[in-house]
Design a protein that fits this description.
Blueprint lengths: L1 H5 L11 H5 L32 E6 L10 H13 L4 E6 L10 H7 L4 E5 L23 H15 L7 E8 L3 E5 L13 E3 L2 H9 L3 E3 L6 H7 L4 E4 L1 H6 L8 E5 L5 E7 H4 L4 H19 L2 H8 L1 H9 L1 E4 L5 H23 L4 H16 L4 H5 L6 E2 L2
Parallel strand pairs: 1-2, 1-3, 6-7, 6-8, 9-11, 11-12
Antiparallel strand pairs: 3-10, 4-10, 5-8, 5-9
Helix pairs in contact: 3-10, 5-14, 11-12
Length: about 375
């Protein structure tokens, strides 16, 4: 698969900042690569590590159970079973039953959940620099591009905004899907329409002249059915899993915006493990991230029956970076990026400098895929006229 070509193979040896963070230094994210969990490169046998502890972990997600993002948890469980058999059990609570999207980060810090999916755009004050990944202006050509750049930036810069949480994985939407009742082909088609879109993504919709509405993902279907919303701006596979093709007819896909996420773990819970077990845990997380999390959005487009059915039913408008309509959206959105960088600078966070560092990582990842290659991740589509 193309994902294998696109995934950045991290350093062969597993190197961690775990020891530093245990001493009060460094950030809450382990500096890891994809190296071997044991000296010989084989999964550690359970009896070979008598100091390793057993843990029953709770994981919270705001997404419905069938959403493909949640498969990251089962993939992580499988990797943990490989590298520390019998030591880790992850119980997943779906659809905001334990923590909703807005409360996820605080809930992980408080220990309500051990692990959770944290939406960066819903936590602006917590992750001010990371918000840059959500603003228009990068034209990410795939979810793996955005997530890889995010991960590499964290490993390189070790931003202080991650000091209180252990980052297990990064995830992203890449080019997002605007699912609507009426066709959107140009920015003028957005004016006055109410779309589910929150945080920075909501600001972007507002810059296009739309009206962003913040509701839980699980409420989107009914809000579209009832007419409260005229559309929803999210990732393609999630829209399919939420069966939005039953309440909408059109979808516009373009690399205009991105939603960034982390799979975060309560730092104190992570540090209950001895250092070598933390290392094995992070190896499991990094492999899960590289092999599934970064590119599952695109791969599910052609392998998941629900997404394929969604693709066949919906009428598509695909707007690439070279399409004349792209500039109409992007030019308005990039104004937001510039304004936000100025705010970061005023707050002493070096937004200008970090934007350039992020741009370097984005360009490196973006260079690995063309828009045409990205479109190959979709099944045959029906196009809107």
């Amino acid at each position: 698969m193309m994902r294998k070509k696109l995934v950045l193979l991290l350093v062969a040896a597993l190197v961690f900042a775990v020891g530093l963070s245990a001493c009060g230094g460094g950030s809450g994210t382990a500096d890891t690569g994809g190296g071997d969990a044991t000296a010989g490169g084989e999964p550690a046998a359970e009896d070979a590590n008598p100091g390793w502890i057993e843990m029953k972990l709770t994981a919270a997600t705001f997404l419905p159970e069938g959403n493909p993002t949640n498969a990251c948890f089962s993939n992580l469980q499988a990797k943990l079973d490989k590298y520390m058999p019998g030591k880790m059990t992850i119980d997943v609570y779906y659809a905001s039953t334990l923590l909703n999207e807005a409360d996820m980060y605080d809930g992980i810090l408080a220990g309500t959940a051990d692990i959770g999916i944290v939406s960066i755009s819903r936590n602006v004050s917590r992750f001010p620099l990371t918000q840059l990944f959500c603003y228009p202006g990068f034209a990410f050509k795939g979810s793996g591009v955005a997530a890889e750049a995010h991960w590499n930036w964290i490993q390189s810069e070790k931003p202080a905004e991650y000091d209180d949480i252990t980052v297990l994985m990064t995830q992203a939407t890449g080019p997002m899907a605007l699912v609507t009742k009426e066709r959107v082909a140009t920015v003028d088609d957005v004016a006055g329409k109410q779309y589910r879109a929150d945080g920075v993504i909501g600001e972007t919709v507002g810059s296009w002249g739309g009206v962003p509405v913040t509701i839980e993902d699980s409420e989107t279907y009914e809000s579209l059915r009832s007419g409260l919303l005229q559309g929803s701006y999210s990732f393609y596979g999630g829209s399919a899993k939420n069966k939005l093709d039953e309440v909408a007819e059109y979808v516009m896909v373009s690399p205009l915006t991105n939603m960034a996420f982390i799979f975060g773990m309560n730092k104190a819970r992570f540090e209950e493990m001895p250092a070598d077990q933390q290392e094995a845990f992070m190896r499991a997380a990094v492999e899960t991230m590289q092999e599934y999390t970064w590119w599952f959005n695109e791969e599910n487009n052609v392998t998941d029956s629900d997404v394929v059915a969604f693709a066949k039913k919906m009428k598509h408008t695909m707007i690439g970076p070279d399409d004349p309509a792209f500039a109409g959206f992007n030019d308005r959105g990039k104004v937001l990026q510039g304004e936000y960088v100025k705010k970061l600078d005023a707050d002493g966070l070096d937004g200008t400098g970090q934007l350039e560092v992020i741009r370097k990582f984005v360009e490196e990842a973006n260079a690995k895929v063309t828009w045409e290659e990205y479109l190959a991740y979709y099944p045959p589509l029906t196009y809107a006229e």
